[in-house]
Specification:
Helix content: 25-40%
Order of helices and strands: EHEHHEHEHH
CATH superfamily: Response regulator
Largest sheet: 4 strands, parallel
Strand order of the largest sheet: 2-1-3-4
Number of helices: 6
Oligomer: single chain
Radius of gyration: 14 Å
Structural class: alpha/beta
CATH topology: Rossmann fold
Strand content: 5-15%
CATH class: Alpha Beta
Length: 152
Amino acid sequence: MIKILFVCHGNICRSPMAEFVLKYLSRYRDDLFISSAATSTEEIGNGVHYGTVEILRRKGVPVPSHRAVQLKKSDYNAYDYIIGMDDWNIRNIRRITGGDPERKIYKLLDFTERGGDIADPWFTHDFETTYNDIYEGCKGLLEVLNGRTKNT
C-alpha cells in the first residue's frame, strides 16, 4: 500500500481537492491510501470550501464527506508521500514533522515539467486554475507511481 497525504494551509480547498482528484484518477487501483491535512488549526473540523465542491462536481469528481484535520508529527512515519501545494506549506510541513530525512516531502507541481506553487483559491477565488494545476500534478504523480517516469 502506497500512502499519500496532501497538505495545504487549511485543508478545505487545495489539499482535499487533490485528495479527491487523485482518488478519482486512481479509482481502479487498490494499492493507494490517499488523505489530506492542514498545517494550521484555523479550519479544523470545517467542511470543504464551497468553491472546491462546485468545481469538483462540475468536473465529475465525487466529493465525499470531509472535515479538516491538522498534520501531525507522526504522519511523517505513516505516509510515503507528503505533498504540499506551495513553498509556505513545505516550510510548515517540515516544521511540524521535524524535517525530511527520508525525502518524502514534495510540492505537487514537482511531479510536472514546470514545477512551482499552486495558488490558494481562498485568496485568488480562481478555483478553475487551482483545479487545472492540481489535476496536472496528480496526473504527474500517477505517472511516477506507475513507474513511467523517475521519482522527483
